[in-house]
Structures are given as structure tokens and as C-alpha cells.
Model the fold of this input.
Amino acid sequence: MNAPNKSGWKPAMNADGESIGGPATHTGNRALMLEEELIFEIGGTDTTGVDLPQPDAFAQRRTGGLERTAEIGLPGLSEPETVRHYTRLSRQNYAIDLGLFPLGSCTMKHNPRLNEKVARMPGFADLHPMAPSTTTQGALAVIHELGEWLKTLTGMPAVAMSPKAGAHGELCGILAIRAALEARGDARKVVLCPESAHGTNPATAAFAGYEVEDIPATPEGRVDLAALEARLGPDVAAVMITNPNTCGLFERDFRKIADAVHAAGGLVYCDGANFNAIVGRVRPGDLGVDAMHINLHKTFSTPHGGGGPGSGPVVFSEALAPFAPLPFVEKTDDGFVLVEEETAGDRHASSFGRMTAFHGQMGMFTRALTYILSHGADGLKQVSEDAVLNANYVLRKLEDVLHAPFADSGPCMHEALFGDKGFAEGLSTLDLAKGLIDEGYHPMTMYFPLVVHGAMLVEPTETESKAALDQFIGAMRSVAERAIAGDETLKTAPHYAPRRRLDETLAARKPVLAWTEPAAE
Amino acid sequence: MRYLPLTDADRSAMLETIGAPDIDALFVDVPHEAQLDGPIRGLPMHASELAVERHMGRLAKQNLAAGDAPFFLGAGAYKHHVPASVDHIIQRGEFLTAYTPYQPEIAQGTLQMLFEFQSQVARLYGCDVANASMYDGSTACWEAISMARRITRKTRAILSSGLHPHYVSVIKTMARFTGDEIHYCAPSLDAAPDYAAMLDAIDDDTNCVVVQYPDILGRIGDLSAIAEKAQAHKALLIAVVTEPVALGAIKSPGEMGADIVVGEGQSIGVGLQFGGPYLGLFATRQKYVRQMPGRLCGETVDAEGQRGFVLTLSTREQHIRREKATSNICTNSGLCALAFSVHMTLLGEKGLRALAAENHRLACHAVDTLANVPGVTVLNDAFFNEFTIRIDGDAREIVRELAEKNILAGVSLGRLYPDETGLAGGLLVAVTETTSEDDIDALAASLKEALA
Done:
């Protein structure tokens, strides 16, 4: 038997960008590396991949004389061409299924396929949101059961399931805070966020009508409790704090922060993006949180799908529960009730309103509940422990070669943070990231959080084996050593991806956002 | 646990490398009193794939799937046939398990798809440009009002009475916090939308006029006069389309002068899924691009001059602009946009027009059949695939009664407008290519029996 391929794939060009190893091809393709044109270039408005009765030109039309007569310009492809087009495109994507995807704060863990199978059961997938509730009891049971798990795992008494994504959940939490403050006649104006916060936090607070101020951090990468206490006062509506924070550290003083905010009459929003690090081991409710969103697509592994759909249920403390949005599900002696405008009556008069049509991301609820039931209470605890173990392993195996600004601040949680200190002049975090692409990895989160120069935030997640981590660590070490040594070839990386570096400045200066027929030569 | 690859031997070796005596040492920064001493009590332990599938399967069977009954529900979510290849493609791991395409060199698959999607949406809506999708139609609608405010610097929004009441609720919820002034009243059961009142309401303080097309009662009207009057008062016309298949048969809002067109894209490629995930569509004029919310994909070239695609104009977005961003939105509805785009590619213009014609043909048949049922009046003069019927009494009772016979009759206006007693006799009936003539006969027969 032959040994596994140690020399790897044959490069198509040398370090100077010259083609080596073979002639140019007629098509521009290289065996399995296939280029694909746009549907507008290969399809036609008279081609279709579906069989439908052709419209009868003499059929009656009762559309008020508004028939669409001009060509729309939508190209069609036959089914085989369609499948091939998208299959070819898919092969130009990196994905968790292909390899470790260490995007800090994004929690790119394995997406179990059972979840996909369950979400497609006709009773869930083919169910109308406004169907009579006597015919949707199983769906309402899923929403209720998932909500109970989320409340238990967070130690919080109430949950709003309808927010469509993390940032939508943040908005839900902040609106509930504002509604609660207004209900007590307290028009506070300011929301405090740490500099290291996700950009969505200040954007959400501003969207909800608040002024945003920074909370300073200590040199060890945590919220500066004394500075925060000094800033608290009758104008502060809330603090928004991520815990574990975006430096990958647990906010040791969270309970003291929460108590101080409450004593000053404010409320505590926790960004739950990093709940993966503590799920099953720590309940945010025990830390004094009033509202926290949970990204089902992070902690509970609903697929990221190339940028959504997400899902962002929000758990609430007793203080905020009455202000939660409609709709929600209640369990009664007669089964599950969907509480919405029609059924809410006076019982939910203080609800701040509705955030979306219908009831939230049901397709994500079925997946998340399947994931949770698969893990159980013991498995979820193991999830957070393995996620934290994997991140600490990466941190300690790389801290001698990459600058780890908070390495002395204690163990990291589920992600390890590095900076670009020590790189040769002219080489940056971006160059390292692009070098990592050539090594077959999606890069880590870059330039976030903002508090570390050239930040690199690495989140391996619990679904990576030790062997996969060791291989990744080897690649990171190699690329980091090249960045320190001043290897100029990094500046033109990636060399082996479907595209070389793309001109983002050109894209923004002259935006081309839709296909147009090329002008005749 | 089948999803966790570390063995106990791995864990011990890794702890040794880290220099930690045990796993608890890594949680040392969590205050002791906030740590649980074991798995959370009162919850079940891990379960096999078989056991979980059984549990979820039991819950799924407690629902009456749309495909298992004569089915007539719409009101912003429509049952259409989704070709098998759509679901196959969105389950390819390279699409399903990818992140937002922030590293364009290894995300050209998602990016090219988004560029194609944006181009398809812009053409469908009759606009210059579209974004890479939003959460759903209702949130896209609010984002459009916010965008209009940034452009006109005015805060008075006029909503047509035909706008989906959930969309109105979302707008009112948000406006309470932003201070936008919202003009709205519930619809009345007239044969055509009341555009005269809207035209009267437009003045120099108007930021935007929001009109649904076809409207919540399925009615269709020409938007041109509203567009003209809005323009004369430096206000924007926002058109809302909850059934995109309609635009294979009727003029696009862009052709009639709408400045922003938003809507729900679920009908094309995305199943009903009890309300989500869906996808918001959002398109506008080229000149407003920089005020647009949401992700945008644009064409560019790489270092070797090859065409490629990137996310662009991100200086509008929260991760760069933070509190000054055009929106707090961080995600789009990527996989649903893929489903939409694949389905639209399978249809093409020819298929979309045929699909729309088939929907309209069956809806005409349903209108004629139901109009013959004693006690039923059809409200609409014009419609696409959804219309309103009126009965004496409360349509909610009829919906419940027919559900007991496994007929999903439609969406009652009483459920959508619980405070409007005058609408209680209204029932929205949607008919698509998935509705058979037998289904329509079954609905007519059971209505006849219920109203007798």
C-alpha cells in the first residue's frame, strides 16, 4: 500500500507567481478547479427548468389592467444546467464540512445532519404560520420545549422566541429595557458598551434611540469596574456587556457590575454571542442579567448558511418579562396557545409590541431543539468544557510565536486572542490570514476586537479533534514565522485560492451591484 | 457524545500541555457561586440519533401539514411547489456550512450567487439595485421607512390600509422608539383599495407612503398616481410585495415609479416552515444605494485582473460604523436567498410567467366557484392568487369548523384584526399551483354546508 500523500497538491505556480508544472489550458480550468459564468451569461429568458402548463393567451385576466408586458429579463436554465451551475459555485466556498473554521466569536462548529432531517419533516416544514392552533400543536410544543430549555440553561424566567437573528435579539432586549424604564416614568438616555463590544451593540442601542458611551477596559482585558461605577448615574439606562467577552475572557466582576448598575437604577444587557463557552456550566441568570439574546446559530449549531438565516431568542429577568414582545407560546390545560394580538387580551398589555411577522425562525427552532436533545444536560456541559479546553490548547501552543496580549490574564474561555506585535515591517494580520488560506484554512476573525492591534481571534470550537487542532497549530506557527521573518510572498497571498486578492476599493468606489448587458463592441 | 471528537486521553494530554490540573482550573475566573456542580438538574441526558428523531417525529405528526389537506392560507406566506433540486443544492455543505463571505478569495460561490440574486430581485421588482436579502418582509419594510427618513429627513410615514397588519405592528413598535409619526387605519371591505384618501394625506411633511401590492385583501391598484404625488412633495413611495410570484403577471412597482420596493421572498424556493426563516427582499434606485441597509455584493477584479465578487459599501454597516451605521443588522438570510435564486433560475422568465398564469387561472376558478356558494360574496374586482370573501357572522368560527374536517380554509380577518368588528366576516383565500380543482370543490362544499 502506498503512503498518504505527504508532498501535498502540486502547486500551479512558484513563489514568484510563475506558472510551473504544466501548460496553460484552453478553458482556463485546471482539472477539478472549474470556472463558472453568471446565469445571465449562460441562461436565456426562453429556457426553463420546470414543467408548467403554458399560459393560454386568451385566458381571462382579472388583474385590473396591470398586466406585465415588458420583458423582465430573468434568465432560466434547465435542471441539469442549474444543478451543475450551483455545484460548481459551491466548490469555490470554504466551509466547516471542509475543515477547521476558527472564526472567533462566530462559533463555527459542526452542523449535525439529523437537525436538517428533522427540520424537513412535513409537519414542521410544510406548516403555515396562520394555520388554526388546533392543527399546529406539535409546532407550538417545539417552541415551548425549546423555550423551557433556554430558560433552564440560562436560569432566567422568561423568553421571547421571535427575534430573527442575534442583532434582532439585541434590539428586542434593548426595547424591553426602554419599555420598562418608560413604564416607570424614567427617561434615561445613555447605554454604555465596552470598546471591545461587537459592532451590533452600539448600533442596536443607537437604533433604539440611545446615546452610546464607551466603558473603559483594564490592561488585563476586562471591564474596568471602578471606571464603570464612576460613570453610572440617573442618565444610564443600561450596560451592554458580552460575557465571556470578546477578548475571550470571563468577566470576573460581572455580578458586581450588575449589582452596581441595578443600584443606580439601570438594567443589564448581556450579549450572549459567546454562550457556547459556559452553556451547561454557568447560568447567566445567576450573574444578575436582565436580558440576553442567544444565537441559536452559534451555541446550538443551526447552520450559518453563508450568512444567515440566524435566530436570536432573548431570555428575560422578572423585571423585564412583562414587556416581552408578542407573540409567544403558553402551555394551558387545553394544550398550547399562541399568544398574539387576537389572544393576548389585557394580560399582556405592557408587551412592547411585535418585532416580526409571524412567530420567529421555526426552522431554526426544530434544529436547535434537536441539537439540545442530542446533547442533553451532560453533553452541553461537555460542549463548553471541550470548547474551552481546545481554545486554551491553541493559546498555549501558539503564545511563544504569536503575541498573546492577555495570556497572563488567566485561562481564556472558548477563544484565544493574539496581536500582530513582532511581525516584520510591512506585514500585517491580513497577510497572515491570506497565508492561512493557502494552507487550506479559513482565517480567524481579524481586526476584532478593536482593543488589540492587528487582532486575531481564534475559536476552534468543541467539534475539532486533537489531531485537527495540532495540524491547524502547525499551519498557524508556520505562517506566523513567515510573517515575523518578513516573507514577502505573504503579501501576495493567497496564491492557490480560486481568486487572488480582490480589489475591494474598486468595488466600493464604482459599485456594480447588478448584472447589466455588456455594451456592444 | 457523537458530536465531540476528544477522547479522555486527549483531554488529559491537552490539560497537561496547558499546565492545568483539571478542567475546573480553566473556569477559575468564574466566581464559585455562579458555577454549577454538575449537569443542570431537571433536564434529560444525551440521547441517540434514533431517540431524538423519534421524539421530534412525534411532535411533527401532531401538526396538519399543508400538503395533507385542502389548503387555502396565504396572508404573506404562500405554499408553492419547490423543485427537488433547490433543496439538494442548499444542503450542499459548501453552502450550508459556510460563514458570511468576509474572505472573498474562498467564498466566490456564495458571493457570485448573491450577485446573481441581487440582479434577479432588481429585475423582478423593476428597480436598479437590490441588497443581499434581509430577515423577512416585515423587517425589510421597517428598514425601508428608516431609509426614507435618512433620505428625506422627514418623519411622517403614511401606511396604506392594505398593508399586512403584522407589518403595521412591527412598524408601530419601532416607531414608538424612534419617534416616527405613523398614519394608518385598518382597511374596510371595499372592492378596490382606497388610494384617494392616501393621495389626500400626502403633504410636504410626508417622508414616505407605504403601499402593499397586491394588498392584504388581495386587491391590486395602479401605484403611478401615488408615486407622482409623493415625488411632487419630496416623499418616497415604498411598495411592499408579499407574494413575489405575482410579479410574473402584473407590472412591477418599479415600473410604476416606486422608489423603494421591499417584500417577502418566501414564495420562491422557501417552504412555509411555520413562519420562518423567510427572506426579506429590498431594492431601490441606484442614487439611493449608499443609504440602503443590509449587505451588498459587488463586482470587482482580483490581483490578476480576473472578475470576482466581494461584499461592498460596508462603511454603512455596524461592524465598521458602530452607532452611526444605517442599521444594526449583522446578518442576511443567505441560505434562503440561495433557495430563492436557485428556484428563480429553474423558473426563468418563461417559467415565472407560466407559474403566475397558473396561479391566476386557478384563483379565477376559485372565485367563480365560491361566488356560487349561497351566503358568500367575493369582495375583489381585481386580484392575483388571493382574494377576500365575505360571509355573515365571524369567519373565525368557519375556519375552526372547517379545520375540524381537515380543510384549511384561509386566514380570517378576525384573527388579523381582532379589534375591527366590521371585518369579522372577511376570509382571505389563497390559491396557488398546488391547489387542485378538487380542493376548491371541497372548500365550496364545506362552506355551503357550514353556512346553510
Q: What stands out?
A: Chain A touches chain B through 200 residues (CB under 8 Å).
